[in-house]
Amino acid sequence: APVQVKKICCIGAGYVGGPTCAVIALKCPDITVTIVDLNQARINAWNSADFDLPIYEPGLEDVVRQARGRNLFFSTDVDKGIKEADLIFVSVNTPTKKAGVGAGFAADLNYVELATRRIAAIAESSKIVVEKSTVPCRTAESMRTILEANSKPNCKFQILSNPEFLAEGTAIQDLLSPDRVLIGSLQTPEGKDACASLADVYAHWVPKDRILTVGLWSSELSKLAANAMLAQRISSINALSAICEATGANIDEVAHAVGRDSRVGSKFLRASVGFGGSCFQKDILNLVYLSESLHLPEVAAYWRQVVEMNEYQKRRFSKRVVDTLFNTITGKRIAVLGFAFKADTGDTRESAAISLVRDFVAERALVNIYDPKVPHEQIWLDLAEAMPTTPSATIQKQVTLSPSALEACKNAEAVVIATEWKEFKTIDWETVYAGMNKPAFVFDGRMIVDVEKLRNIGFKVTVIGRGERL
Ligand code: UDX
Ligand code: UDX
Ligand code: ADP
Questions:
Q1: Which of ligand 3's atoms lies nearest the C-alpha of 42?
Q2: pTM of the shown model
Q3: What are the E-state strand segments in 242-331?
Q4: What are the catalytic residues?
Q5: Which residues does 65 contact at the CB level (< 8 Å), separation at least 6?
Q6: Ligand 1 contact via 432 beta carbon (within 6 Å)
Q7: Is 280 flagged in the annotation as binding?
Q8: CATH code, 409
Q9: For NAD(+), which residues are the binding ones (predicted)?
């Protein structure tokens, strides 16, 4: 029969583990949830008296305020967390491998393996171990092999795959009312029992018909597939945006018309300067790697093109800026508004803004960056990583981090909107215009400005997916 879960441990207090388990604690007052991490600074931040949490996510602070100290705890004592739990989420990072076989494509499973081995070494009673990190297919199988090879008498492990579909910026909303919860298990009686135990946890607040139970491998592949297909929609619309710019059609109108077909659907058709985030590119490259390992080169090529289109979109946008500014931006000041990979997050992983700034710096422009949430140290780190051969003194000389959008735009020749932060929709453009060099250009990579209004003020406006005259 299914075990009733009383204690949950989550290994990894990051973007996935933190919000997910905080919401579980909020919704399941009868379950004790302990989130553990090796990173002391991160745990300190989760525990900070003034709720200065390590990640920014609308609504998260409120959830943590309600549950922390009640049935939600954060700790660096990984072993104690493992020992006490009936169910363990493994929610550690799975970055793309930087060296060795599959470098640049395959996921680095070192962290998953270390965490799994720790569970095997420390556990003194049976556990349900839940793979929560995004990992390529069959990781659960490797975790199972490690756990089974190390299980003691009275100490059995059941492995589940429970991929997380939350998007950053809307994580709490997504967790509170998910489209679906997916749980994969072995189709054995024990596997199905473990699956039922986890389903009961979610059933505290998720309607039963939204909890899907499938095989272990289907669950893992579904996560990669969901992200690949979402990214593919963006690359498709971005490919069409290039046609619009070359012909005078308007991508907004095209996307609207296409999205009205209920078979296509209207969501995720916003043309942009390119998708970013920790998942899309990584997961597609995983799918490419998986396809190649399975000797399916046509399938690999198909998915790879989604990432290539995204790279093209970013390059194309920075080239359009240079072309429009009379083919040179050397010594010109460019304001880049937004550095996060999307609005409502401080996360910059794979952000299109990084590529844009790198290109502008390479063209020897002066760049002012403003983002309402990204910490300054993070911007410097990202730029250093994006330009490994450029001396940091050069980067520091060409790049300025500004305290506000207005400040960033002062004395600039051009304003580039890279992230769709709400506050950029209400910028005082009259004041911005007065402070800029003329002609003053605006490049909207997120389709958020009122083009007519800006043109009336005097701006030359270029919008992604629009080909008409400035
Ligand atoms: C994504 C998936 O949405 C989520 O289900 C999964 O669990 C993790 O990966 P996330 O990366 O947090 O979530 O954000 P998402 O909203 O999907 O945006 C990803 C990127 O695509 C952002 O850079 C965003 O600006 C861009 N995007 C999104 C577009 O350019 N156009 C769109 O229409 C939608
Ligand atoms: C299509 C468009 O649907 C329609 O809007 C347009 O006006 C004309 O082209 P049609 O070709 O008549 O219509 O049929 P459709 O139902 O779209 O199917 C096209 C092909 O796709 C068929 O061979 C169908 O079997 C196949 N298909 C469709 C799939 O293989 N899988 C699906 O999920 C859907
Ligand atoms: P994600 O976006 O997948 O949540 P993050 O990098 O934000 O990824 O978070 C993963 C967290 O997992 C990091 O804080 C890292 O310190 C932690 N971590 C990695 N390996 C282990 C481990 N073996 N034990 C405990 N925590 C770990």
A1: 14
A2: 0.94
A3: none
A4: 279
A5: 51
A6: no
A7: yes
A8: 3.40.50.720
A9: 12-17, 37, 42, 92-96, 133-134, 168, 279-282, 349
